[in-house]
Specification:
2 copies of one chain form a homodimer. With about 130 residues, chain A is mostly beta strands. Chain A is about 5% helix and about 45% strand. Chain A has 2 helices and 12 strands, in the order βββαβββββββββα. Chain A has helices at about 30-35, 125-130, and strands at about 10, 15-20, 20-25, 35-40, 45-50, 50-55, 55-70, 75-80, 85, 90-95, 100-110, 115-120. In chain A, strands 1, 3, 4, 7, 8, 9, 10 and 11 form an 8-stranded antiparallel β-sheet that branches. Chain A has a two-stranded antiparallel sheet with strand order 2-5. A two-stranded antiparallel ribbon of chain A has the order 6-12. The longest helix of chain A is centred in the last third of the chain and has 5 residues, at about 125-130. The two termini of chain A are about 25 Å apart. The interface of A and B includes residues 29, 81, 83, 85 and 107 of A.
Chain lengths: ~130, ~130
């Protein structure tokens, strides 16, 4: 565990990621709060596929360096302390930079009606265009 | 700023706190996500008043040492990595230990209908009983 890690690293993310990533669920009682929150750790170079959330998603960046990119826009460099408000239905991906681990807390609002739609992987050419 | 701080310290909390505390709002678009999220920094010995949230609250502890106490129960010691799920209408307080700063991210679920009710301060005798 990196000395900067705050929350447990959790389990390997099973799908929709290129490279190694880990997910630890932080909130267990989704029914009461109608939200999900989780810690995501991306190994250097790893990222999730292009995807969208019908009700959006929130990222609270806690360590390392990563990227957030919306379809058709340049990627944004993310560091600890950055907050990303991903609007409903915006196609995007997030992940680590090529040479740094990246950790964020994610929040899925309106969990009971928030549908995620996974699309294609972020290919190496798309990823490399950010470096 | 403490080297462990991740998010900005923000502004002095205006009321319902004993001692110095600071609050930085992390999410601006409450209407879209129907939740609030904020970073709270407690100086050593500071704490909020007894209170309850009609829809509960979530705490993600990021640095230092603090307490969480529900009415009628012993206080729980909190450290970085601890997560507290506060159920709806449970009377509680949170704050720093006597000798450490304490920082947590707070999440207010169902913001559009989540009412907070502030009660009396945690007096020095109640606070000291945890040490």
């Amino acid at each position: 565990m990196n000395t900067k890690d705050i929350f447990p690293k959790g389990q390997k993310a099973p799908a929709y990621f290129t490279g190694d990533a880990w997910v630890e669920m932080l909130i267990t009682d989704v029914a009461t709060y109608d939200l999900m929150s989780y810690n995501v750790t991306f190994a250097p170079g790893s990222r999730n596929y292009w995807h969208q959330h019908s009700q959006g998603q929130l990222l609270l960046c806690t360590s390392g360096e990563g990227y957030y990119q919306e379809k058709g826009k340049p990627a944004q460099l993310l560091k600890a302390g950055d907050v990303v408000e991903i609007k409903p239905k915006v196609i995007h991906w997030h992940g680590a930079t090529a040479h740094s681990e990246f950790v964020h807390v994610g929040i899925t609002p309106k969990a009971s009606i928030n549908q995620v739609t996974w699309l294609e992987p972020v290919n190496d050419e798309e990823y490399a265009s950010n470096i």
